[in-house]
Design goal:
Blueprint lengths: L7 H11 L7 H22 L2 H13 L5 E2 L6 E2 L1 H13 L15 H12 L7 H21 L3 H4 L4 H18 L3 H12 L12 H21 L16 H4 L5 H6 L6 H4 L13 H12 L9 E8 L21 H4 L3 H11 L9 H4 L2 H8 L1 E5 L11 E7 L4 E6 L12 H12 L5 H12 L11 H4 L7
Parallel strand pairs: 3-4
Antiparallel strand pairs: 1-2, 3-5, 5-6
Helix pairs in contact: 1-9, 2-4, 2-6, 2-19, 3-4, 4-5, 4-10, 5-6, 5-8, 5-10, 6-8, 8-9, 8-10, 9-10, 14-16, 16-18, 19-20
């Protein structure tokens, strides 16, 4: 176990969270803005999914002070309930960005900040929102990096664990809490952190919704004087049980903002609305196709060899079976299904993950011709790779491989590609002109005097209740 003495890590992290002396480089704020825009797109798309309708009905049943709009609808509710909706929307498609260690760093903090800002009762400058998002993401990164991966080995999901404290940090900063209040907020939220593997179900994205809600509530309670255990992060019976006994606690503080994780690594913006490791198989198939469009009856077989992601509980041998998924959500986590979609359609789209789509006769036929195998084991996610071999009925063999999908850190999506993704995601909830108006405002959000003025742009004219 780390030698850090009681209370020092949690208090030091609290002080770093609210420190107004931080420098936020232009490139870090620009990337945070892009994360925000991508996140708004994901939330709009998620709001139109079945899980979006479910959480909207839940929010309506909860009632609450109508202070925060629920994205993509005319519904208004309390900040915490709106945060639950927005966090769930954000991850509904598994289209949101990620980084290393493999995690989703934006959803919980973004959802919490949006809902808190709308319900704040004061002007919230866009710059403050961006800085709070960076701090939330940094908190999630440093906690996740410090962990010994015990949580993922045990099947727990990091976004419900680390994302909860990240959203708490982001909200504490936006509310202007003191370091002492922020330490209490960490103690409150640590008692709410958690998450197990619910991949392929509605409960999977709800982890981020709960993390966002818990982040707002923990910060609000701490502001009101609610108490919790000090030093919760390093406490053996506290948050350390999630970090693991071999956690590098010193690094949480020593590496915070030195540099910012966004500058150190960047993020991967997803091209396809499915679990990130499946993108290697998809792109290997597309590389083999080389732009060809193959009629299904010309395909004899598809062989895909892929590495299994180390330490990732939901991407393992059970996700490699070439069987028809039982739902569209389950299809997002199925290597064979996503590869077959790429084979038949030449891409992977949002509409490929409806329950109807996974039951397609062409899909069933192609899955019957597909074989998935494992490449030699790897120890680092960065070493993932996939190899595809497509055999046609005329004997022609098409081969392709992938080791670094476009969109990954170091090879980001272009501005035009990100814009196209936003439009695609926004289209189920907003008319094209509404989506463009929102995106135009978000591009300059850092100069916005009050982000609450975005509220009318979040509600479509053809609003769904």
């Amino acid at each position: 176990m780390s030698s850090i003495k009681s209370q020092s890590v949690t208090r030091a992290l609290a002080e770093l969270t609210v420190d107004r002396a931080h420098t936020f480089p232009t490139e870090v704020l620009a990337l945070a803005r892009d994360c925000l825009i991508d996140g708004f797109g994901n939330m709009l798309a998620g709001s139109a999914q079945p899980v979006g309708a479910q959480v909207r009905e839940f929010a309506r049943a909860c009632g609450g002070v109508p202070e925060s709009p629920v994205l993509g609808s005319s519904l208004r509710t309390s900040g915490p309930i709106a945060a639950f909706c927005h966090g769930t929307f954000h991850r509904a498609l598994d289209f949101d960005n990620c980084w290393l260690p493999l995690d989703h760093p934006v959803a919980a903090s973004h959802a919490a900040l949006l809902s808190l800002a709308m319900a704040s009762g004061r002007a919230v400058p866009g710059r403050e929102l961006l800085e709070a998002l960076v701090v939330g993401m940094e908190t999630q990164a440093r906690l996740r990096i410090a962990s010994d991966l015990a949580t993922h080995k045990a099947g727990a999901k990091g976004r419900g664990i680390f994302g909860t404290l990240a959203a708490t940090a982001a909200c504490c900063r936006l509310l202007g809490l003191s370091a002492q209040q922020t330490e209490m907020a960490f103690g409150i939220s640590a008692g709410r952190a958690g998450g197990v593997d619910n991949s392929g179900t509605m409960s999977n994205p709800a982890d981020s919704g709960l993390a966002a809600r818990n982040g707002i509530e923990s910060a609000m309670l701490a502001r009101a004087g609610f108490t919790a255990r000090a030093g919760i992060i390093e406490a053996a019976s506290g948050f350390l049980q999630y970090l693991g006994d071999d956690a590098d606690l010193e690094s949480i503080v020593a590496r915070f903002a030195r540099p910012w994780r966004l500058a150190e690594l960047g993020v991967a913006f997803k091209k396809y609305p499915c679990q990130y490791p499946t993108h290697w198989g998809v792109d290997a198939v597309l590389a083999a196709l080389g732009g060809r469009v193959l009629p299904p009856d010309e395909i004899e077989s598809l062989e895909l060899a892929i590495t299994v992601t180390p330490g990732h509980s939901s991407f393992n041998e059970r996700s490699l079976d070439a069987v028809q998924p039982n739902s569209g959500l389950a299809g997002k986590f199925n290597v064979a299904y996503t590869a077959v979609v790429a084979l038949l359609h030449g891409t992977v789209r949002i509409e490929d993950f409806s329950d109807e789509a996974v039951r397609s006769a062409d899909i069933a036929s192609a899955l019957g011709k597909t074989r998935i195998s494992l490449l030699p084991a790897i120890t680092r996610f960065e070493d993932m790779r996939a190899q595809a071999r497509i055999t046609l009925r005329n004997g022609v063999i098409l081969s392709g491989s992938m080791s670094r999908p476009h969109g990954i850190w170091g090879d980001p999506l272009t501005a035009d590609e990100l814009a196209a993704k936003f439009r695609d995601c926004a289209s189920p909830a907003l008319a094209p002109d509404e989506a463009e108006a929102l995106r135009a405002r978000l591009l300059t959000i850092g100069q916005d005097a009050d982000v609450r003025s975005l509220a009318p742009l979040l509600v479509p004219q053809r609003s769904s209740a």
